Amino acid sequence: MKSVFRAVLPLCVTLAALGGAAPARQAFAQAGPGSEQPQAGMQAGASAAPQAASLSSADRAWLQKIEQALNRSPTFQARIQQIDANGKRTTGTVWMKRPGQMRLAYDAPSPLLLVATDGKVVFRDNQLDQTTVIPMERTPLGLLLRQHVSLSDDVTVTDFQHAQGFVQVTLTRTSSPGDGTLTLVFYEKPVALRSWSVVDAQGRQTQVTLFDVHEGGDLPASLFVPPADPQ
């Protein structure tokens, strides 16, 4: 099934969401293959409750379709192109297995590796010889790695746009909007994930594009062993 994770947009998660900043308000950019992804900016007021987007009945129907698409396959592998907060482009491979597991390996000469497992996100920089560990629940990334991906419950949809064959949804955790936001962009027909972007607690945005996607199948447990932290 090449429906959900078809597209172009990677996910270093920018070390996603460490402190307090407010949820982002996403501007819906004209999207198409090869175009830049939507931009995001942070607003003040980390402790304020997130403001939910005003959704029509048609919008809610689209959210149900998107939920179904996201939950259709628990595993996938894809090549990625990433644009970080400084505008640097990097390529690599991402493997994801719900619940709670992901590996993002960047192509050489990048020294970076990200592994999500056991409720934490481990980010390794071999060049700096540094390992950073973040609780998964403090990152927008955790929203995609749940057993069942939900666009409601403890999640608030803060922005919804539907135009020119694309659907864009911006999400944040209702109880902790300061942890950052996750924006998903889908093709309309068929409903398929084109890209995602993360804005962390410091307002840094990382955009991820997926291509050469393979859904389903077994992924070896060795993929999700976190990198060692040399002492």
TrEMBL record:
Keywords: Lipoprotein, Signal. The keyword Signal applies. Residues 1-29 form the signal peptide. Gene3D superfamilies: Lipoprotein localisation LolA/LolB/LppX (2.50.20.10). Pfam families: LolA. Residues 29-50 are annotated as: Disordered. SUPFAM superfamilies: Prokaryotic lipoproteins and lipoprotein localization factors. This is Outer membrane lipoprotein carrier protein LolA.
